[in-house]
Amino acid sequence: MQDMGSHVCTQHFLGGSVYYTVYVPDGTYGKVVVACMPVGEERNHVSHTVSSLLKYGADMGVAGVLFDYPGMGESGGTAGDFSLQGSLETGMAVLNEAFPEYGSLEMVFLGVRSGSFTAADLYRELGGFLILWEPFISGEQFIKDLRLRERIRGSLTGSEEDGTVCINGEESSPEIYSELKSRTDILEGIRTSDVHVVRISNSGTVPAQYRSISKTGSYSSVSCPPFWNAHEHWDTSPCIRHTARLLLEEA
Fold it and tell me: 249, 1 in Cβ contact below 8 A?
C-alpha cells in the first residue's frame, strides 16, 4: 500500500436532478472508480460503506464518483421509472460531466448488488475493469429478491403481495421486468481477466451462483457482515480494505 494522502470531495446535481459525489485526490491521478449503487432500501444500507471506500481510495490516489439513480437516494424523479437502460445512460452522463477526460484514464466500475448490472453495462460500453460486490448473477435472481422484499413488506403492513416488481415501494414499469428477464448471465461477454467478484459474508461457503467464477481466480471472499441488510454500526472496514487492494493491485 502507498502512503495515505488527502482528497477533495464535492457534491453535484446533474441537470438539477441526478445527485452525484466526486472524490478527487490531491495531485495527479490516472484511475477512476465509478460506484454503481443498488436500488431500493439496499442503497441506503450501503451508501456509507461505498462512500468510505471512495474516500479511502482517493487518499491513495484513485479518483471516484458515486451517483444515485433518478428517484433514489438524493436524486429527484420516480423510482418506479427505473430501468437498466436508463441507469446506463445516467452513469454515462455523470461520468461525462464529472470526468470529461475519462477517455485518457483507467476505468474501474464497482457494482454493488443490483448495481452490478449498471457496472457491467458501463464496462461493455467503455472497457476497463469490474469489481462486483455480491452481485445478482441473473435478472431472474434479482426479480425474486425484489418480490421477497415485497412479501416481507406486505406481512409487516398487512397489504397483499400481487407479484408485481416494486422498487422503493413503487410499482415498476413493464420495461424493467422484460429487461431483467433477458439478463440470464450478468458476466456474459465479459473477459474473466477483467472482473473480480467479491463475496461478502461471515460464511466461507461459496454460493452456487458463484461456483463457476470462483474456479477462475476472479473471486474472493471477505469475512464481513452483509451490510446491505445490516445496521450502520457493523464493521465493514475489512471489505473496504480488501477492495482498496483490488483497486491498487489488480485493476
Answer: no
Q: What are phi and psi of 78, to 5 degrees?
A: -120, 125
- Return the CATH number of the domain spanning residue range 7-137+188-250: 3.40.50.1820
Scan for cell 491521478, then name that residue: 29
pLDDT tens sequence across 173-199:
777 888 989 999 999 989 999 999 999
CA distances from 70 to 27, 82, 86, 142, 225 (A): 32, 7, 9, 19, 28
Give, in order, the Cα–Cα distances in Å from 175 to each of 81, 117, 135, 169, 247: 9, 15, 21, 17, 34
Residue 246 and residue 111: Cα distance in Å, rounded?
14
Distance, CA of 52 to CA of 9 (rounded, Å): 11
pLDDT in tens, 13-50: 998 899 999 999 998 899 999 999 998 888 888 998 99
Q: What is the pLDDT of residues 64-107, one digit of tens each?
A: 999 999 888 889 888 777 889 999 999 999 999 999 999 999 99
